[in-house]
Amino acid sequence: MTDKISPEAASALAQIDKSRLPKHIAIIMDGNGRWAEKQGKARVFGHQNGVEAVRATTETAAQLGIEFLTLYAFSTENWNRPKEEVAALMTLLVQTIKGELPTLQKNKIRLQAIGDLESLPQATRDELQEAIDATAQNDRMTLILALSYSAKWEIVEAVKRIASKAQSGELALNDIDEKVVANALSTSGLPDPELLIRTSGESRISNFLLWQIAYAELYFTPVFWPDFREKELYAAIADFQSRQRRFGKTAAQILSEEE
Fold first, then answer.
1. Is 207 a catalytic residue?
2. Which of 132, 138, 188, 228 is the most buried (most CB within 10 A)?
3. Tens digit of pLDDT for each residue in 162-187?
4. How far, in Å, are 30, 81, 85, 86, 213 from residue 250 at the CA level?
5. Is the whole model's pTM more than 0.85, yes or no?
């Protein structure tokens, strides 16, 4: 949400009830490579232009009042991409974290990260940790980057931690419940996303937050990530607010509880 927004963005913003915002939004940022290829450019060109979408979306979410924003920045499967593209992505990630730190500080955004962070290059980890430490006291919004992340990897790691506690006698078998599992995940302490957005027209979850999105509302848009801006985020939130979230109950039960 910048000082000057387009008429389309203003119209989309007007549709939002700010008293019913999702607390946590997660986004699968998809379509950078195809966006670049459509323009006859190398795939990394799309990733470079996707940085502006990250900045615009993060600032807009913070200014709107979203408390948590998780961005799927790099999956474990992305390591299988061409080595040149992966190397360029890691370099871009370092440059982006360093370059966006003033934006995070200005908007009082705290940075966190989830995923197999040990698999990242040392330079990437160092830059990431510096930014996490520098923004630790910010309290307007928490931005979580999912890096070298896979939901299956996360669940396997959680099972290992729980099994280790059970084996040592620290945890009884019958004490293992949903709360224990949730606390063993890398998102422990964070609320589950209420809205999951995926760009580029694909309608897949792609191994992202599989446990946490059990009751999230899913929103798919054909817009490629480099073109995602305020009005697209507003449209997703407006669509979220148009739905009735029942959590297994009937519509009549929900209406009765609201009365």
1. no
2. 228
3. 999 999 999 999 999 999 999 999 99
4. 34, 45, 48, 47, 20
5. yes
